[in-house]
Design goal:
By secondary structure, this protein is of the alpha+beta class. It contains three helices and six strands; from the N terminus they run ββββααββα. A hairpin with a 7-residue loop joins strand 1 (13-15) and strand 2 (23-27). The longest helix has 9 residues, at 86-94.
Length: 95
């Protein structure tokens, strides 16, 4: 599926993460915003794009699998349309 930046309308490019987690990352390469978005997908639901810190995908690529699993456990599913990545981001940035 194609996604567009909610801030500037530029097509988002997928960002490769080397670990198997249920989060896809997309980057806006517009010089105006350079934002990164995460999309959590589970077996039953697809959640909307959530803005995350720009260096989250790169940090995930250098973390060991055990730390990535721990980070994934911090994702909070609130209901079938809402997900919180605050604790996930705190963990990844703090490791």
């Amino acid at each position: 599926m194609t996604y567009y930046c909610p801030h500037c309308g530029v097509k988002l490019d997928p960002v490769k993460v080397d670990h198997d987690i249920w989060i896809e990352f997309y980057r806006c390469n517009s010089p105006k915003c350079d934002m990164v978005y995460a999309k959590v997908v589970d077996m039953r639901n697809e959640y909307p794009l959530v803005e995350v810190f720009p260096n989250i995908p790169e940090k995930l690529n250098v973390l060991p699998a055990s730390s990535v699993s721990e980070a994934w456990s911090k994702v909070q599913f609130i209901d079938y349309k809402t997900v919180s990545l605050v604790d996930f981001e705190k963990y990844v940035l703090g490791v």
